[in-house]
């Protein structure tokens, strides 16, 4: 089994292995098998298309957490110039599960804040699997306040299973850190664009997610609790995660239908990790469009509009 | 059933059953902490605080506001708001059925009751969570009602108080429920900037989405003795860190020690002390 592929992608993996095998054979012999390779590649494309047009909510959840999915720092490298990372909450520590700093988006100064997961084991641990402690949220707050002072738009990238459920995090006020960000973000006099690039997990995601425009990558998810968490509470079994994912409607597509998402950014065939460069390009274009849409609003109108937007979020008779 | 019951003729047994059911149900209640058996009318008179060990038991939202507010000038806010199941959510039960049984159990339409009223003549807006309604979970109705109550307090420039008791977000409303955190927090920030006081009273228990939004945003955060409050539940934390949690973890005394709340107030003193605090904050003469 190829670990770069998820369960439901195994047919694709098998075909690719076969193509690879043929290539090797082709190198050894004089027989021209290019035609066969091309035929298989076309078949592979069709198969991928077929699999990816009928993804279940649970399959999308798995792609959103794919170990090779691009993370915040990848997009910073690919879509922005001249990034200076800024560290620390000035009170306790620097939380590596949230990164932030100043960069340029085609020349314009912007403040970037995002969850950061690690790729290798050691790095995963250092980044705490993208689960911030209170220091992370307080660092984010400090940078957002700075962005407001220096009139820079705030671009946040959401990719977390949730805020860290640990003893130390509780002792240092995890709840307060999240709550305070929610309250403050509702009033910043600078545009905020939040983009879910992977997992949008609960309060830990929302704590950098109050915004003027919400964008979601095609195979990202956003929800009040992880499918496993929801399943173990409501179905009393984490094995029902697939049912929970369906019921919660956590995919970008479903959330756009429900009116939460302003822009759904399409991903390359097979997901962002298959072609990070082209993903970053579409993301960059979408961010620039969103910023342009908010450009005409003066800061008071922006804050009023954000408040009205928040007030509309409800499942009530309209 | 003992062997004696088995040999007693069935007629006598059914008589015994009848006699048993003629005793009013629930006349006695065991204190979950000290296990004393308490006479319910007496417990009610004591606002569900155990007279033996001072343990604060849960009380309903309506009773809570009934104890807190003056008897006159009460006016309920947004009483007609009803939940709507936009997602057609279904787990082992339909969300609609869960709502119906919670409504039957509590007599409330959802998990928050809000009222305009007075405390010793001081006008204010107060709301309270109904924990028996799906664990006091915050869905769209709770969020909307909270915001309407907050906006009324802002309009009338009177203090706003919330008694929280909640397991957190309502999963059956998925992202709608998550957004209530942002919505309620945004409304409170408007009060803060306008200088309208908000006092958050934590009652056992307050977790998740409610803890990480409105419950931690008081100008003053107060807790009843020993009430538990935190972001993640103790079970989740234990499973994550794989160690035993310290004694008293996430209880009011722990929160006070770690700087999350301003004070712990006994249920019997809440009305008087909060009244006195709010009078100072709004420059009113002492009652």
Write the element-wise H/E pattern of chain A from the N-terminal end onward: HHHHEEEHHEHHEHEEHHHEHH
- What is the first-to-last residue Cα distance of chain B? 60 Å
Biggest sheet details of chain A: 8 strands, mixed
Number of helical segments with 4 or more residues of chain A: 14
CATH superfamily of the largest domain in chain A: 2-enoyl-CoA Hydratase, Chain A, domain 1
Q: Any guess at the CATH architecture of the largest domain in chain A?
A: Alpha-Beta Complex
Uncertain regions of chain A: pLDDT < 50 for 5+ in a row?
none
Mean pLDDT of chain B: 92
* Class from helix and strand fractions of chain B: alpha/beta
Q: What would you call the structural class of chain A?
A: alpha/beta
Q: How helix-rich are the residues of chain A, as a percent range?
A: 40-55%
Oligomer: heterodimer
Strand content of chain A: 15-25%
Classify the beta-strand content of chain B into a percent band: 15-25%
DSSP summary: helix tally of chain B: 11
- Total beta strand runs of chain B: 10
Please provide the ordered H/E string of secondary-structure elements of chain B: HHEEHHEHEEHEHEHEEHHEH
What form of chain A results from the Cα inertia axes? globular
Fraction of residues in helix of chain B: 25-40%
The top-level CATH class of the largest domain in chain A is: Alpha Beta
Outline of chain B, from the CA principal axes?
globular
EC number (chain A): 2.1.3.15
Family (chain A): Belongs to the AccA family.
Enzyme class (chain A): transferase
Protein name (chain A): Acetyl-coenzyme A carboxylase carboxyl transferase subunit alpha
If you had to describe this structure to a student in words, what would you say it looks like?
The complex is a heterodimer of chains A (318) and B (287). With 318 residues, chain A is an alpha/beta fold. Chain A folds into two domains: 48 residues; 255 residues, Alpha-Beta Complex (2-enoyl-CoA Hydratase, Chain A, domain 1), CATH 3.90.226.10. Chain A is 48% helix and 15% strand. In chain A, strands 1, 2, 3, 4, 5, 6, 7 and 8 form an eight-stranded mixed sheet that branches. In chain A, helix 3 packs across helix 11, helix 6 runs parallel beside helix 8 and helix 10 packs across helix 11. The longest helix of chain A has 20 residues. Chain A is globular, with a radius of gyration of 21 Å. Helix content of chain B is 39%, strand content 17%. In chain B, the strands form two sheets. In chain B, strands 3, 4, 5, 6, 7, 8, 9 and 10 form an eight-stranded mixed sheet that branches. With 287 residues, chain B is an alpha/beta fold. About 4% of the residues of chain B have low confidence. The chains are: A alpha/beta (318), B alpha/beta (287). Chain A: One of its GO terms (molecular function) is carboxyl- or carbamoyltransferase activity. Chain A: It is found in: Cytoplasm.
């Amino acid at each position: 089994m190829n670990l770069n592929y998820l369960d439901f992608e195994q047919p694709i993996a098998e075909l690719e292995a076969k193509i690879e095998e043929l290539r090797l054979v082709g190198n050894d012999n004089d027989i021209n098998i290019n035609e066969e390779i091309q035929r298989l590649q076309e078949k592979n494309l069709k198969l991928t298309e077929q699999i990816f047009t009928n993804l279940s909510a649970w399959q999308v959840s798995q792609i959103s957490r794919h170990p090779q999915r691009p993370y915040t720092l990848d997009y910073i490298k690919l879509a922005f110039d001249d990034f200076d990372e800024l560290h620390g909450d000035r009170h306790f520590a620097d939380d590596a599960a949230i990164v932030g700093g100043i960069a340029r988006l085609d020349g314009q100064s912007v403040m970037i804040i995002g969850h950061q997961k690690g790729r290798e084991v050691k790095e995963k641990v250092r980044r705490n699997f993208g689960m911030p402690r209170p220091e992370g949220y307080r660092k984010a707050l400090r940078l957002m306040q700075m962005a407001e002072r220096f009139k820079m738009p705030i671009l946040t990238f959401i990719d977390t299973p949730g805020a860290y459920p640990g003893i130390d995090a509780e002792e240092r006020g995890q709840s307060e850190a999240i709550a305070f960000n929610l309250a403050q973000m509702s009033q910043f006099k600078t545009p905020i664009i939040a983009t879910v690039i992977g997992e949008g997990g609960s309060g830990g995601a929302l704590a950098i997610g109050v915004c003027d425009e919400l964008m979601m990558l095609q195979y990202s998810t956003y929800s009040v609790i992880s499918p496993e968490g929801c399943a173990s509470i409501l179905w009393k079994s984490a094995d029902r995660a697939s049912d929970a994912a369906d019921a919660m409607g956590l995919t970008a597509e479903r959330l756009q239908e429900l009116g939460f998402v302003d822009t759904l950014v399409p991903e390359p065939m097979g997901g962002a990790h298959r072609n990070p460069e082209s993903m970053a390009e579409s993301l960059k274009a979408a961010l620039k469009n969103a910023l342009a849409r908010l450009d005409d609003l003066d800061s008071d109108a922006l804050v009023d509009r954000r408040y009205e937007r928040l007030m509309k979020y409800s499942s009530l008779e309209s | 059933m003992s062997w004696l019951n088995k040999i007693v003729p069935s007629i006598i047994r059914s008589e015994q059953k009848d006699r048993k059911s003629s005793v009013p149900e629930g006349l006695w209640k065991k204190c979950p902490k000290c296990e004393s058996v308490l006479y319910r009318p007496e417990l009610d008179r004591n606002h569900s605080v155990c007279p033996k060990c001072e343990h604060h038991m849960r009380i309903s939202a309506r009773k809570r506001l009934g104890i807190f507010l003056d008897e006159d000038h009460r006016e309920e806010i947004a009483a007609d708001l009803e939940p709507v199941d936009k997602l057609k959510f279904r787990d082992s039960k339909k969300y609609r059925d869960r709502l119906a049984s919670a409504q039957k159990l509590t007599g409330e339409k959802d998990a928050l009751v809000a009222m305009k009223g007075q405390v010793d003549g001081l006008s204010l807006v107060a709301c309270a969570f109904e924990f028996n309604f799906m664990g006091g979970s915050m869905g769209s109705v709770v969020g909307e009602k909270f915001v309407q109550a907050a906006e009324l307090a802002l309009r009338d420039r009177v203090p706003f108080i919330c008694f929280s008791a909640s397991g957190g977000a309502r999963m059956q409303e998925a992202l709608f429920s998550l957004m209530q955190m942002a919505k309620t927090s945004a409304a409170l920030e408007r009060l803060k900037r306008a200088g309208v006081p908000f006092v958050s009273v934590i009652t056992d228990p307050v977790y998740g989405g409610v803890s990480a939004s409105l419950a931690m945003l008081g100008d003053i955060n107060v807790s009843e003795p020993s009430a538990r409050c935190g972001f993640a539940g103790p079970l989740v934390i234990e499973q994550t860190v794989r160690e035993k949690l310290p004694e008293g973890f996430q209880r009011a005394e722990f929160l006070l020690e770690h700087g999350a709340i301003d004070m712990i107030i006994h249920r019997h003193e809440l009305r008087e002390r909060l009244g006195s605090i709010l009078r100072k904050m709004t420059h009113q003469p002492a009652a």
